[in-house]
Amino acid sequence: MSSPKTQEQLAQEKQLVAATAAGWVRDGMVLGLGTGSTAAPFIELLGQRVREEGLRIQATATSKASDELARRVGIPMVEPRRGLRFDLTVDGADELDTQLRLIKGGGGALLREKVIATASDYLLIVADSSKAVAQLGRFPLPLEVVPFALPWVMDAVAALGGAPIVRVNKLKPDELAQSDQGNLLVDCHFEAIADPQALAQQLQPIPGLVEHGLFLGLARAAVVVQGEAVQVLRPGLAAVAATTFADLP
User: pTM above the 0.85 mark?
Assistant: First the structure.
């Protein structure tokens, strides 16, 4: 069994997959910009193309942090509006399985991430090799919850075996973490999710649970590093080298 990769190696992988995805963006695209440690270098590299190549794009971000980064590197941003669709959204994931079912929301942006993913013609995931798993669930499943409903949501999730824990603000440990919408974040420790679709259906109707971090049937492809090569994974298909991939709209 190979030893776990170092943080430096994983950071290099993030840069590789981000650069690959940034190279696929075409003139005239309207983009959704993800959130997190792999989406950030993608945004930076995309801004570099805008500045140096004159790439003409517009974008909407899944978080305030990504929006600020995108504006800082020179990407023209558009506000949400009726009829707005994205040609391509590039985002990270906390876990992804062989069917490209995802757990997302470790950065607390799961609601906006799912809104933009659903409004996209193509969702492309960029992830380092540590995010690819045989079964979802080792990474705690995030939930976004209306503050008033928190006690009842916690009870309902505990009854499902989720061992919920309210997320604390990392910078201010005496405060609870909040999403950009002012909702609370709850991390559910299922350890293993045998049937993600069934769990999603159980979570969806809980009153006060605004959104869950299971992203099912949304990702069209994922760019990951396997071995030393950048590869593209798609649901039900064999992995292909990123250099041969030509499936984007």
Answer: yes
Query: Are residues 120 and 24 part of one domain?
Result: yes
How many distinct structural domains can be found in the chain? 2
13 included as an active-site residue: no
Pair (149, 112) in one structural domain? no
Contact 164, 187 (CB under 8 A): yes
101 and 158 both lie in a single domain: no
Kindly state whether residue 170 falls inside one of the protein's structural domains. yes
Output the CA–CA distances (angstroms, integers) from residue 96 to 23, 80, 87, 102, 131, in the order listed. Answer: 23, 28, 22, 5, 6
Q: Where are the alpha helices (DSSP H) in the chain?
A: 7-24, 39-53, 64-72, 110-118, 150-159, 196-203
pLDDT tens digits, one per residue of 48-98? 999 999 999 999 999 999 999 999 999 999 999 999 999 999 999 999 999
| Residue among 113, 175, 191, 211 flagged as catalytic | 113
Q: How does pLDDT run across 225-242, given as a tens digit for each residue?
A: 987 799 999 998 999 999
